[in-house]
């Protein structure tokens, strides 16, 4: 779970997670970043000129800025065991790292040569001394604690960050000088790339912009899409909506970004076709594994599961792994029903016997707000639209 603790409502979070510029041609093209297969790139003179302006804190002329767009792209993101997190490759100063893309936080931080070796064994490290484009951000520090109490802190550089075919020179990159045990043990993950709103960024004395905010002016459309898969690689696409990745129209709802999260409102909620709740507010968070809902909905869901029990020894609802689980449905935007199949709800077995499973739907009572994490998101095609009027779009897809 990666929504940040600094928001007051998140101070008492319950979480279950495992362990817890490359320039483009002038012609606009979409880009997609793949977690395991870096995409080839081409050179653009306009993009090089624009990069120089951005590097020195200037806005490029309008014609240069227009010609330099085409920073769209796509990247593959791959799940770890039990889909507990989805990891995506990026480059920082030309050095490849694998990060957790997190729409519930706004810091881009990495394991680095600043991280003590006792805390960084097994991780890929960013070394600013090996990058010709790195620059220390004088006096800047950062410190973040996530909802599951994992944490990290350190100093700040700027460098060129590339996600698939999308790049930004001068992106704030937070170098970890201390990481908590959860991150130390998670050797597949070299840091996080936050995709929430800028006000959640923890850099002091001056908060920094997210990668999405920085690249947004250069994208064909001010958005990114998330297509997570169950036990299979998915994609993050920047700047375009790939209609081949969804099977119906995209239904949009307004986002309340005042707290820095992608907060939206659902309509009615049904379990197995039976209505159990009216509208609720929630955040869409790719960095949280589970789906956290109010107690009345959670109780209603597991009331329809044979052998389910709220197990204090396990910290939440469990049930026999061979139990049949009902679908749970959410009305969105008045015209779309987002369905999470029962087969998507199980998180993981509670022990090696594989007879009892921990549910992927749990209570949000201790969190303070509802969270639509990966249990929900991997059942949907989701559009995160930024700009002055942020929205979320949801569509059905082939499962």
If you had to describe this structure to a student in words, what would you say it looks like?
There is one protein chain. This protein has 399 residues and is mostly beta strands. The protein contains 7 helices and 27 strands. It has helices at 45-55, 62-68, 117-120, 181-185, 211-215, 295-302, 374-377, and strands at 31-33, 73-79, 86-92, 95-102, 108-110, 135-145, 151-163, 166-179, 191-194, 223-229, 232-238, 251-254, 263-265, 269-271, 274-277, 281-284, 291-293, 309-311, 316-320, 328-332, 336-340, 346-349, 356-359, 361-363, 370-372, 381-385, 391-395. Strands 1, 2, 3, 4, 5, 6, 7, 8, 9, 10, 11, 12, 26 and 27 form a 14-stranded mixed β-sheet that branches. A 5-stranded mixed β-sheet has the order 13-16-25-17-24. Strand 14 (269-271) and strand 15 form a beta hairpin. Helix 1 crosses helix 2 (62-68). The longest helix has 11 residues, at 45-55. Residues 4-29 and 34-43 have low confidence and may be disordered.
Question: Gist?
Answer:
The protein has seven helices and 27 strands. The chain has helices spanning 45-55, 62-68, 117-120, 181-185, 211-215, 295-302, 374-377, and strands at residues 31-33, 73-79, 86-92, 95-102, 108-110, 135-145, 151-163, 166-179, 191-194, 223-229, 232-238, 251-254, 263-265, 269-271, 274-277, 281-284, 291-293, 309-311, 316-320, 328-332, 336-340, 346-349, 356-359, 361-363, 370-372, 381-385, 391-395.
